[in-house]
Amino acid sequence: MCSPQIVRLAHESAPQPSRRAVLGLAGLTALAVAAPAPAPAAAAPRSGVVDLTHTLTPQLPVWPGNPPMVMVPVAWHESGGFGQFALGYWEHTGTHLDAPAHRIPGATTTEALAVDDLVAPLVVIDISAKAAVDADAVVTVADVDNWRSRHGEIPERAFVAMYSGWDHRLDRPSTFLNLDERGTPHAPGFSAEAARYLVEHCAIVGAGVDTLSLDCGADPEYGAHTAFLGAGRYGVEMLANLDAVPAAGATVIIGAPKHAGGTGGPCRVLALT
What CATH code is carried by the domain that includes residue 186? Predict the structure, then answer.
């Protein structure tokens, strides 16, 4: 995620692209309507391998101010024997990873993430009941302790995911973004206190959410981002199907992006149950 202020500053401070680049981007945008309609997402299985990834399409909601993903056919089987698309998206689009560098200057970038940290015990903390009545609900230290009282200690080097039920709003994208009259999004996330607790007392490798931000959408301080990424952990935002995996006992595999200097990027996330 990026705040509207960050998006504005990025546009203002970015070097001006060449006329050729501008025309190329304009062409991609104009041709984007030619991309095929996305296939409907398959129902999540109840055992075995569960896909925790949303299908990346131009229609998938993005953080306010970010452009949608663009998909344009550029090669055809009929002329050359191969099909190919040109893809255009900001790093933090769809089900995606936040590397520490997304929040912390000079911190670890995508290609430098430890591969051992990308396969981890999966912990799912369910706050869907309170999120159903409070769009600004957060995972608290009490929620973490309640999970521990029911399931035992959080495994060492675990990946802790918040399940709020927010992905069920995707058929109505405006309710997924849930913007107020000022354009501020309202959606669940981790409290800064819970994020620090998980880092300092539970030795996690990363954290994930089924919303667009590790923080509660309306939090202007981004305390959870700072706590997780500032401690060298990674985040994964916009996870899918967390209600199809157990609260404890599964293993998560993060198919993280690996482009040099990246702050994050779309990833394929699988749970082995």
Answer: 3.50.30.50
